[in-house]
Amino acid sequence: MRGPAVRTLAPVLAFVALAVLIYVLPAFVSDFRAQQFAYVGIYTLALIGLNVLTGYTGQISLGHGAFMAIGGYTTAILMAGNEQFSGGVKDIWTIPVAGVVAGAVGFLFGLPALRLSGLYLALATFAIAVATPAVIKKFEGFTGGGGGINLFGLPELTAGITPVNVLGFELNFNNWLYVLCWTVTLVGYVLAWLLLRGRTGRAFRAVRDSETAALSSGVNLATYKTLAFAVSAAYCGVAGSLFAIATTFVNPDTFPIALSIFLLVGVVVAGLGSLVGAIAGAIFIYYMQISWAQGMDKVIPDWLPILGDVDTSSPGAPAVVFGVILILLMFVLPGGVSGLVARLGAIARRGYHRSP
Amino acid sequence: MAPLLELAAVEARYGPVQALRGISLSVEPGEVVAVLGANGAGKTTTLRAISGTVRRSGTISFAGKTLRGGPEAAAKAGIAHVPEGRGTFTDLSVLENLRLGAYTRRDRDVKRDVERVGGYFPWIPERADQRAGTLSGGEQQMLALGRALMSRPTLLMLDEPSLGLAPMVVREIFRIVRELNEQDGLAVLVVEQDARIALRIASSAYVLEVGKVAVAGTSAELRDNESVRRSYLGY
Amino acid sequence: MADFFQQVVAGLASGGIYAALALALVLIHRATGVINFAQGEMATFSTYILWTLTANHGWPYWPAFAFTLAVSFAGGIAIHQVVIRPVERGSLLRVVIVTIGLLLLLNGAMTWIWGGEVRAVENPFPTRTIDVAGVAISLQDLYTIAVVLGTVVVLWAFFQFTKVGLAMRAAAVNPAEARLVGVRVAWMLGLGWGLAAALGAIAGALTAPSVFLDPNMMQAVLIYAFAAAVLGGIDSPAGAVVGGLLLGVGLNLLGTYVDFVGADLRLPAALLVILVVLLVKPSGLFGRPEVKRV
Known about the structure:
The complex is a heterotrimer of chains A (356), B (235) and C (294).
Chain A (H helix, E strand, L loop, with lengths): L3 H21 L6 H26 L7 H17 L10 H23 L4 H21 L1 H4 L5 E2 L13 E3 L2 E3 L1 H25 L1 H11 L1 H6 L4 H27 L1 E2 L6 H14 L4 H20 L22 H16 L3 H19 L2
Antiparallel strand pairs in A: 1-4, 2-3
Helix pairs in contact in A: 2-7, 2-8, 2-10, 2-11, 2-12, 3-4, 3-5, 3-10, 4-10, 7-10, 8-10, 11-12, 11-14, 12-14
Chain B lengths: L4 E10 L2 E11 L4 E6 L5 H9 L4 E7 L2 E2 L4 H7 L1 E4 L11 H8 L8 H11 L2 H4 L10 H14 L4 E5 L7 H18 L2 E5 L3 H7 L2 E6 L2 E7 H6 L1 H8 L2
Parallel strand pairs in B: 3-8, 3-9, 6-7, 7-8
Antiparallel strand pairs in B: 1-2, 1-4, 4-5, 9-10
Chain C lengths: L1 H31 L6 H18 L4 H24 L7 H23 L14 E4 L2 E4 H23 L1 H11 L1 H6 L4 H27 L7 H14 L4 H21 L8 H15 L14
Helix pairs in contact in C: 1-5, 1-8, 1-9, 1-10, 2-3, 2-4, 2-8, 3-8, 5-6, 6-8, 9-10, 9-11
């Protein structure tokens, strides 16, 4: 098979292969690793969403952790209840609600944000990220304040106490979590792909490349800019919802300021467009976060030499290493991992065409 | 007498676009030379190649030495480049613009030269603290010229000084340039679309076309040759 | 009423610190178009150097401070040369990420080198209060205000009256034309980063006596500095100073007299300032509206 048929078939095959790999993986890794990879899936979903905003329409947001918080707290409140509401909603049903709520807030934020661009937008969104933990703490009655909301042991939590039966497989909590997160993420990727390949995607890119040109070719800037905000917020809301289910607990520190910064970092590491890139970005920020908390020696296997005799158990080491990696990545791979994948693909295709 | 400025087979490109395809020209000390031609012929690029603001190859020598590096080196060597659009620092005051012109000088006569420039443009001392961006087009051009003089250059390069200015203002500017050339022996390389006014002060000229020198000669030769005048100079 | 004056003076002092850091942010943004997210960590790093010299090596305060300023200045230039120059011309996002990487790097380095425990830095100013018209005013606040104002005046004089200062101003607004008159624009940009780093060192040294030194010391101050810079106009040095002072006093009074805000919502209040300014007049108090280049 040659020519155009290969070109559309190849990415689909690649996606299917990746999906199969993802579903099969838990059989080969420990329970603990499955849980870790579930988190990677959550971050991948958030990055796919943020990519719609930053990669496609070129708007920089340093505040999407706030949308994850909105999604996470929506789920927690619906499940466990607060002073106004008695809770009792099954966890799976809270996920789409979280997405809608976060998306609506994203849309509302997108409206005034229309007037800002570049650095000003980045600062405005950063302001939101910083304000969020303090605001959550302040409105105690609604959010449970600093004490947070506990989801552990709730009957609404699937597989929380007894394993759940999915398609004939008995899954305990960690494996169920893995399947849930990755299914949502893969669906989310397909939806994003469908959204972006058509007119909407082109309009998004037009907004990024030149607002004036977009305007003169009839693209309604306002619609697409706010749409991008809403979509990216919805994705992060769903990711936040999954996060709450995964950690079975939310409080203001679950979604700290650093999260918003890490999400932007992840998007840039991921680059534009490929699922592999998004996963790579998610892995980067996930391991950056845990090594920060636990020290790098827990993350790096013993046999991997890292910078000679760097004392990897020191608390400052991970931040230094990740900072350096990030800076070097920007020098060498401004297009992120997706850029690298694209370049490798181009090389592969050239080799393919040269063969007789 | 060795030429003050000499270009040999100079090429220049903007990315994939080749703007100069091998330009050779020379300016004698104290001479006024005009570079003429239509839009896009490469006139501005020629000046940029000399001051080093565009990627170039070929040999450029100035005052007997090869000119290398960027505009900072050209400025230090004694070339003052007044770019298209004047290049005044619009946010800074008139006086500050002049002071910047003397940036490469290490001596202490800057104040005296400010006065000298004031002699050529009497309105300057009165408006020394005015923001340069609020000046009229003609005044900005004069300010740019004054700034160029502050560096005590050996070669003055002017890029389309007549652009956007009223004819009377243009005549005044060219009169001053001629005066500088006659009194101080300042060599001038002037790029112009208005060939007529340029040839009035230039002793020789090069006509560029698509990045190459199409015609060259003394002003008299070019003026007297009717076909050259019609096809290349537009009058 | 006495309370009011005390809060105003205290607000001017904290506002002065915000102003110093905001001035650093503005200098860098004017020259290179970059928002340096690592400015706070650079300031903290400088403060650690000051602490090491005075506490571990027994240097007297003012020589140690002068040395710290010099090292910070050099460090700022070095950071610009090594980390920023390679990505200066690229996309905004790229440069922002590089400064975030720098933030991580410096924060981690500080924890690594000096540990995460809180340190006490020598206070060069007396901590007692003096009586001004019956009101007890903190001497430390007054000295802080004096140092900041003095720094601002010195900086202003540098930019107004010296050749290099003029060249830096020219390089910031018209780099292409500046090169034509012989200004080495790249060096001017590096100088801008050096000056900004020195300003950060001053801000850090003024902050440490009240809040104690730890790797995260300047993070809140950085956010207030952002608010001040946005309020004053992101390209206006005068705006940064006025914005910082206004913000310091405003937040202090808000925190004291409005119960709802109190101490916990001080930070979000500052952020509300950022948001409101960005929505109403993005160019800030002293800035000029940005002309979009097509």
